[in-house]
Amino acid sequence: MDSSQAERKKIIVIGGGLVGALNACFLAKRNFQVEIYEAREDIRVAQSVRGRSINLALSYRGRQALKAIGLEDQVVSQGVPMRGRMIHSLSGKRSVIPYGTKSQYILSISRKNLNKDLLTAVEKYPNAKVHFGHRLVKCSPEEGMVTVLGPDNVPKDVTCDLIVGCDGAYSTVRSHFMRKPRFDYSQQYIPHGYMELTIPPKCGEYAMEPNYLHIWPRNTFMMIALPNMEKSFTCTLFMPFDEFEKLLTSNDVLDFFQKYFPDSIPLIGEQALVQDFFLLPAQPMIAIKCSSFHLKSHCVLMGDAAHAIVPFFGQGMNAGFEDCLVFDELMDKFNNDFSMCLPEFSRFRIPDDHAISDLSMYNYVEMRSHVNSLWFIFRKNLERFLHAIMPSTFIPLYTMVTFSRIRYHEAVQRWHWQNKVHSIMKHRWIREKNK
Amino acid sequence: MDSSQAERKKIIVIGGGLVGALNACFLAKRNFQVEIYEAREDIRVAQSVRGRSINLALSYRGRQALKAIGLEDQVVSQGVPMRGRMIHSLSGKRSVIPYGTKSQYILSISRKNLNKDLLTAVEKYPNAKVHFGHRLVKCSPEEGMVTVLGPDNVPKDVTCDLIVGCDGAYSTVRSHFMRKPRFDYSQQYIPHGYMELTIPPKCGEYAMEPNYLHIWPRNTFMMIALPNMEKSFTCTLFMPFDEFEKLLTSNDVLDFFQKYFPDSIPLIGEQALVQDFFLLPAQPMIAIKCSSFHLKSHCVLMGDAAHAIVPFFGQGMNAGFEDCLVFDELMDKFNNDFSMCLPEFSRFRIPDDHAISDLSMYNYVEMRSHVNSLWFIFRKNLERFLHAIMPSTFIPLYTMVTFSRIRYHEAVQRWHWQNKVHSIMKHRWIREKNK
Asked: Which of the listed residues A21, A367, A386, B189 has the most CB atoms within 10 Å of its CB?
């Protein structure tokens, strides 16, 4: 198919969030006629939207996707580099565990700014259009049609050649996959919820070291803090819902913080802490797995709609962005032929998205309970050492996931092999220590 | 609540299959106003419906539920007792492994007859009504309303105090649970499909020993046969879909049966075998798990709608029937108060339904590959021996599941403990054998 043919094909993207907007850029760049339908108002003009995390960690996979549509430099310039974890112990002691080499870092990015930049980028393509305030009411992939409800409240049928579902964890598009023959599906809420709090700037400067992801690991729960460009930090408290439910009064909250996060109270401020704590209830976290991402050559899911994951590896957005990049690479390989690309996208990508889902669930335990053990620090040092002497043979899991495009499921396979080496070293290390 | 109050409450049961019809009997018996909406025509007048298994194994749990509505004797009189497994080896040798003691058996029952009997039983209650040919199009539990589409094709709103979803594995009622806060859900198809074949009577008599469940275990696949009242057997071939797909011609099918089930060919008949094989495609099998069976006090799921399981423990119908019985017991305990019964039903019943789901998946491997090993036969004998000398301490898993109402999840716990004993005995047995 040459580009003039491609131009005539119409693609509807459901959802104008991060993955939807990025995907629209990729597809518009290929000369398709692209229409995004987004249920909310334009975030560039509307009041801020609550209920989603405020900032995100951008790493290599996400950057490569942004690079492919020429947006990497702009986005990176608006991020705050984080070169390692800064662990806050109960006593207030802080220690650093680097993420990788001295030149490696992840970026703390504002969700809202990134989404704005992506929407503006989409609209620069004359063959792309974003319809805000349009809710999907019916999705008929076989007929190549969607029905949307705009501000005029009159249902409108729109035809297309392909529907791309980027409508997030609670995807309406995905609900049409449920009766697909032999479609396996699971959705699992973890017992933890999350809540966002803010550490404001102190005398116009960052109140803590800015170039780190701060972690307060407390075994069954934890708090983290990511720096923002405007010199504040956004803290996220992760805790089982039944623990959240025990904190009913201002005093409960202050006592709890005094007991577990005493160094954070002066940083957040007592009044703001109590006020923010009761502003919104704790939000749930869901992990979703599908055994197929496509319906024939009519419909494909990407991002959270295809594989919502828990946030503990900082890969949710990165995996979603890599979906778009992988799909774009397949469109090159199969010359824009949907009937080839869609099944291949499911076949190729699902093992990777399932792998990062499992790794994120694994890291959920690691971050809150292992990160402050001596063995964790020893292992991280050991990994760095082994990586330094055998850089292509031995790559730490975090490095493979965060600073490479090694396929997620291959990273897991290599990690299992490397763990055998660790295990041998651990026994020797324990023996040394006990001498 | 006294019975006059109960009488005024209206319950809508969605689905008039086995569980829906039985449930309606239980609820009508409690003096509620009960309305069943069933999408299909009345099976008592319509042509036979294909696509579901023809016969089922009724065991203790199912019988206890039928007993509670006074239907046990009638149903049992129409079943064929099966006292054990009859294993057909590749060489044609047959050996028997009893299910339990001499007086214990399961019953091969016709799905269609049982369903007819249950529907007739419902209609005997003046306060119950069955609406056939009515498809559920909308379910609004919070408003206490369903919208159904009858033969006149005009959507009709019906109000009620409780909606009971008994609409099977692909439940429409359940789809309204998907956005319930923190609702975990999974659906998993197994790689195997199933296909039904028939062994007709031979000279007016059963062509094989009637009082057994016949099994042809062949490791990755298997065939079973259950006796019918009219002296035929219904065979079910379980095999991975990709193996089914390899059998494209009559010769492929005959060669396959000649290789793996040679003794069955003269019983089924070459012509009928080939004809039936290509009549319908192999059917999928799905396992479904939900983390909640109820929505507030408005809606509850039972049977396959709540927990479709694979058929390898013969417990699908029995578990569904026990759901109704457990719910009935809770209605006694909580004096017909839905707001108490529904949450308690979820809390109490889910561990059991999840346990029988896992056991059925486990038996899927056991039936097709372990059942013909020496170790399996040794273990069954050992279990019978231990059960005989310690009848209340040591109960074989099969007995607990099939011939008792020990809660499924407790049966699993006891079984794990008993397995430790087995494991010790196994080592001794192997040592003896190798001497």
From this structure: A21
Q: What is the mean pLDDT of each run of 10 residues along chain B (435 residues)?
A: 61 98 98 97 79 86 98 98 95 91 94 96 98 95 93 94 97 91 95 96 97 94 96 97 96 97 97 95 96 96 98 97 98 96 98 97 84 74 81 87 97 89 73 72
pLDDT score of A30 more than 80: yes
**Residue ending a domain, choose from A223, A255, A284:** A284
Q: Which residues of B touch A308 (CB under 8 A)?
A: none
The three-state secondary structure class of B371 is coil
Cβ of residue A181 closer than 8 Å to a chain B Cβ = yes
> Does B178 contact A at CB distance below 8 Å?
yes
Q: Are A394 and A425 within one domain?
A: yes
**Which residue out of B179, B182, B286 would a mutagenesis test of the A interface target, given it has the greatest number of A Cβ atoms within 10 Å?**
B182
Region A375-391: mean pLDDT is 80
Q: What is the pLDDT of residue A50?
A: 59
What is the span of the domain harbouring residue B75?
3-79+109-186+286-365
CB-CB under 8 Å, B189 with A182: yes
- Residue from A175, A180, A189, A194 to probe the interface with B (highest B Cβ count within 10 Å): A189
Q: Residue B77's pLDDT is what?
A: 97
Q: Are residues B35 and B133 in the same domain?
A: yes
Domain of residue A73, CATH code: 3.50.50.60
Q: Mean pLDDT over residues A235-244, rounded?
A: 96
Tell which of B261, B284, B307 closes a domain: B284
In this prediction, residues A141-170 reach a mean pLDDT of 95
My answer on whether B423 and B338 are in the same domain is no
| Chain A interface includes B137 (CB < 8 A) | no
Q: Are residues B44 and B117 in the same domain?
A: yes
B244 falls within a domain: yes
Q: Do A183 and B185 touch (CB under 8 A)?
A: no
ipTM for the predicted complex: 0.80
Number of structural domains found in chain A: 3
Residue B281 near chain A (CB below 8 Å): no
> Does residue A101 form part of some domain?
no
Q: Within this chain, do residues B13 and B155 fall inside the same structural domain, yes or no?
A: yes
A324 and A423, same domain (yes or no): no
**Residues A175 and A272 grouped into a single domain:** no
Taking an 8 Å cut-off on Cβ atoms, the answer to whether B188 and A184 are in contact is yes
Residue at B94 is within a domain: no
B98 is a domain residue = no
Same structural domain, A123 and A249: no
Within the 213-252 window of chain A, which residues sit less than 8 Å (CB to CB) from chain B?
Answer: 241
